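Bumping with the actual sequence this time:
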Amino acid sequence: MRRFELVLVGGKGGTPAHLLASFGGARVVEPFETKGGAAGERMRVIIAMHERVLAALDGGGSEPLPAAAELREYGTVLFETLFPGAVRRLWDEARTAAKGALEVVFTPGLDWIADKPWELAWDSSRRRFLADDAVLVRGVFGAPPSTAPSPGRGPLHVLVALAEPRDAAPVAARQEAAAIRAALQPLVKAGLVRLEVLASTSPAGLHRRLSAGRADVLHFVGHGAFDEKEKTGSLFFVDARGRSLAVDTDRVLRLLTGRALKLVVLNACETGRGGRTDFLRGVAPALLVGGIPAVLANQYKVLDASATAFARHLYWALAKGHSLGVAAREARVAVSYAKGAEPMDWAVPVLYARDTSLVFSRPART
């Protein structure tokens, strides 16, 4: 799969921001304007819609979530912002030259730009959303060099951790675990995958399990949040009394990094977000910087049915031998036609990765 790189640099301390794009040996640079004139109006629209979505999902907004037509209008503004001038021309050349799947890696150096839903960028000339038209990957500055995880011996070990505190809103954790089990059943039967489920997961219980032996993939199902006041993300586990126990980004890092995990999937709200002033305080970007090769997380709250559809198809695609990037893209497609899904649910998952070509399984023989 060919790669289109977008890197946003500058924009701090009075220095102008610039967008660097590269594809197939070609490199272009464009100013990344955020203030004044048309650029300032675009940023106003981008920020206003982002805040509207957050408010609507929290139940305190006066406006509903955007419908399909409004998402395309919003996406057009996102696309025009992300692909200005020469960057757009290089993008058009890349789409023609790629003749198939194309990977777009966006690494923004401005925290408040990183915290926006670029998956929804709408290319009106192709009539496609960016995350539909390509495998869209989020990068972060500070991530260690890309090294392929060692394949290890024996079956791929998938650990599903369910956290359903009795004082929190219910999540469809058991349904999602059942969907993952069904998707992986052929590989489990063939001895290529081992599936393990932890119920009522506490930090201590997950710590004991991770320190006791190998797990290749961790799939967490529960609640998450990003607190702008405290400037940190959190996962919510279950304490000894079955109640919610918030574990912030720093403690999640200590718990999960250094375990030889190849992939962490966080089906927990807002785990794909970061702070407007320190994006790396979000759970998913912090895990990538901390050494996890790939993290899938949610940038907004999402319906249980949509999350389950995404997980089911993600693991089905991985079980069939597709790379992580392709599997994530196909899982978005599955969400887009899932029963009861909101128009933007397919764009809620965010993929952070240093190498999306990773293949976690080989297809079972039939």
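The tokens above came from a reply further down the thread. The chain has two domains: 2-138, 156-351.
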